[in-house]
Predict the structure.
Amino acid sequence: MSDRDETASAVEIRNVVKVYGTGPGAVRALADVSLDIRDNEFFTLLGPSGCGKTTLLRIIAGFEQLTGGRVFLFGDEIEGLPPNRRPVNTVFQHYALFPHMTVAENVAFALRRLKRPEDEVRTRVGEMLELVKMSALAGRRPLQLSGGQQQRVALARALAPHPKVLLLDEPLSALDLKLRHAMRVELKQLQEETGITFIFVTHDQEEALTMSDRIAVMSDGEVQQVGEAEDIYERPINRFVADFIGETNFLGVTVESILGDRATCKMADGFAIECDAVGAPPPGAAAHVSVRPEKMTLAAPGDGGPACRVKRLVYLGTDTHYKVALADGAEVTVRVQNAHEKSISFRPGDAAMLRFDAGAAKLLVD
Amino acid sequence: MAGGPPAVEKSSGRTAGGIGRGRALLLTPAMLTILVFMVAPLCFVGVYSFLTPGTYGGVVWEFSTEAYIQFLFERDFLDETLVFTSSYLSIYGRSIGQALVATLACLAIGFPTAYFMATRPEHQRNVWVFLVTVPYWVNLLIRTVSMLFIIRDEGPLNAVLQAAGIIDEPIRIAYTDFAIGLGLVYSYLPFMVLPIYAAIERFDFRLVEAAYDLYADRWTILRKVILPITMPGIVAGSLLVFVPSLGSFIAPDLLGGGKHLMIGNLVALQFQGSRNWPFGSAAAVILMTLVLIALMVLIWLKNRNRVEGR
């Protein structure tokens, strides 16, 4: 709209609410979601299934109507526009290629609907197939292609009409592991080459961490945290984010005291942990401290950390994973890099001590 | 290791052969039925069409092409000269026209119906399929007679139209070509609905979303995505309506009042009233040939499309 800033975000989502159905059977898919997605950004919506990420994508594409809130595309409100009048295109989870058309015809589909001159269509289809390395198979039908090839055609088809934003709905989930890894790199390259804003939906945190400029972690219809991969991994703002992204250990603690921006927490066995006090509950409250397995090591029993006992270990060559039990019985995973000569220093049954830097512990509200 | 591959090949070959023979056995009852009740009678008809008619029906075993000549020419009573006549050809032309109109009407009614059925929630679809087959519980003859009762001059349809003030006096529906068309559509509509329903039910509606996303409007989605992909069902349904419509004789006989002969009536007449079995057979053979040619053209068109890549 005219009252909005010219340098607006690519996609601006304001207080979006989506409820399916009415009455007691109504399901709330999105509860007051607000997001700003910048131009030229590889933005990922990450969350477990049912968290509302696909619903949000479908709202941007125009397949779902809002229950409440507003959506802007480069400053223009797009609510009410049907999908065929929104300058955004989607790469569908199962590609949805037209089986009765050749690869080239699939890629040309949108351009023909936009009534582009036939020589422009031909040139653009050629460019797109070149871009996704599918020129040699332009005459094939989708059913004659492998999953990875279909994926590339779906990408070329969605990119052909120069969308302002490309929406990708778990596009890698149907591929096998090796191909998935290769496509991650290609997708990221493609985004950088085309300069188009990508909004990528996935439940795979590794995918999100490796490709995204920024990630929005969603759960239960709400955005939990938005940030760069490192922010989200290193500084999760709540227990859900810490748990969902990567692997972590939660140590039960009681908040002892808060002094400035430092909080002191005590574990059940009396060991004190210093951590950042941002968002900490008041002294006396029970909370959890999250420590990533790779930020802990094992040492000989002593005073520098909580006492534990090694229960089992998995030797992985580069790493050794220890499962240890704390005094209160809680299990903790420790991932030790085998950078030193003696790679296995502890055996199941050994008494040991957990060690980690003060900065490694994140105090989280339950 | 050296003996491995051939052994595998041998065993897989044997398995494939075994399954092949087993499957062929499954076909035997159907093949026998077709052979005894279809191929054999067809052969009789083919042979009869080249024989001489008996005086009281039946045939005299004497070769003659008279039946086919009679189809195109009239033999002068006195000097036996042949004069071209189009009366039988026009029956064929009218039948083909009538069958085409009935097929198009069935398609126009059947496609939306099938689309509606196939887009219901899964547990409701079977109910709709069941409802479509309900008319078949009643004998075709009885259904056709009931239709005649409804559309006749003093029938309920005219009464309703008159009461509603749409018409002033009864309009003639019964015993017209329109009535025949109505009867054909009513009789064969399910044959159109069911194959199209099956095709649309298999159709992946995510493709509609994809097309919608790629700037296609509703009409274009129907034309460029739904119709081409469900075309096999449309072709199957059209054949299932067109072929029996072409040879039908109950609807033309009852609803058309026998005034306008169609191929089916012509054939029936030769075996009953006129007792000219060879001519009836020839009429049937000509009909069959026409249908075969139409089918071959259809298959040829389909293959050509496939090669050209649409």
Remarks:
- Chain B touches chain A at residues 204, 206-207, 209-217, 220, 224-225, 228-229, 309-310 (CB under 8 Å).
